[in-house]
Amino acid sequence: MEYRRLGKSGLKVSELSLGSWVTFSKQVDHKEALALMAHAYDEGVNFFDNAEGYEAGESERLMGAALKDLGWDRDSYSVSSKVFWGGTKPTQKGLSRKHVTEACHAALKRLQVDYLDLYFCHRPDIDTPIEETVWAMHNLITQGKVLYWGTSEWNAQQLTEAWAFARANSLIGPSMEQPQYNLFVREKVEKDYLPLYELMGLGTTIWSPLASGALTGKYNDGIPADSRMNLPGYEWLKKEWTSEAGKAKLEQIRQLADLAKEIGLPVHHLALLWCLHNPHVSTVILGASKKAQLEDNLSALKSKDKLSGDVIEKIEAIMGNKPEAAQRY
């Protein structure tokens, strides 16, 4: 395991990390969470990702119980939460000072920690001024309840506004963004955010590196009954991959699988290593419902040398979706 700086911050995160979306509390119970987190930690993973919106807080409770039982030194790992979807009432959602603050307190309680290492604004909130959210995050940091704050799925303009307001008012601005990034979703990370890596020292903790599991190749011959696409509430995901556009993507995955086989890799290792090849990626968040699955994904790190320049070019030829370079400002 190697470690990368979270943008220009001094925090170093493992290049592969463990997330809890979909799995914790939905597919993974306490015993399984313990096994997954213990193995990840033993393999060098030091960042564990969560959010108030994951299973209505139950994912955080499960992770918090596991952290308590594992008893790791608090200075040996980082844990995150995200704020936006806390409940149905007006004061239980969004990025107002009230909800940002109360969601932080609730996350601390569920995760059973004294502070959050990373705290993300899970989506932009058009009903709350960005300056209000920046102030709320700044205050939580000065109170010692949060160490670094960032965003998830904000656009470059919103990020720039938050950073500029913080800078103009001597406040602590965002350090990181958590965008979706994989072979099919590239625009934000490779184009939109390009000027921000230098301007504000933006770090990225990317999610869905395997495109909701599609880049494992397991959907190439149909959708398995036990896959997340058949979980209640994820009908949108199934529709996405059974559409005509989805079928075209599956054909590209079959071609990627052939390429991966040529160089002695499973296709999902190829996809993970491709994400890590981008120097602007601070950490790739893995999801796993079984220990064997996590072991397999972590083992991709042993094959970094197989992702040569020639292989990257062949991947680009198959995908044909490399964004045009953004102009710097």
Walk me through the topology.
Blueprint: E1 3-5, E2 12-14, E3 16-19, H1 30-42, E4 47-49, H2 58-70, E5 78-83, H3 97-111, E6 116-121, H4 130-142, E7 146-151, H5 156-168, E8 176-177, H6 187-192, H7 194-199, E9 203-206, H8 235-242, H9 244-262, H10 267-277, E10 283-286, H11 291-298, H12 309-319
Parallel strand pairs: 3-4, 3-10, 4-5, 5-6, 6-7, 7-8, 8-9, 9-10
Antiparallel strand pairs: 1-2
Helix pairs in contact: 1-2, 1-11, 2-3, 3-4, 4-5, 8-9, 9-10, 9-12
Provide a quick synopsis of the model.
41% of the residues lie in helices and 12% in strands.
Description:
By secondary structure, the chain is an alpha/beta fold. The protein has a single domain, classed as NADP-dependent oxidoreductase domain (TIM Barrel), CATH 3.20.20.100. Helix content is 41%, strand content 12%. The protein contains 12 helices and 10 strands. The protein has helices at residues 30-42, 58-70, 97-111, 130-142, 156-168, 187-192, 194-199, 235-242, 244-262, 267-277, 291-298, 309-319, and strands at residues 3-5, 12-14, 16-19, 47-49, 78-83, 116-121, 146-151, 176-177, 203-206, 283-286. Strands 3-4-5-6-7-8-9-10 form an 8-stranded parallel β-barrel, surrounded by 4 helices. Strand 3 (16-19), helix 1 and strand 4 form a beta-alpha-beta unit. Helix 1 (30-42) packs parallel to helix 11 and helix 9 runs antiparallel to helix 12. The two termini are 35 Å apart.
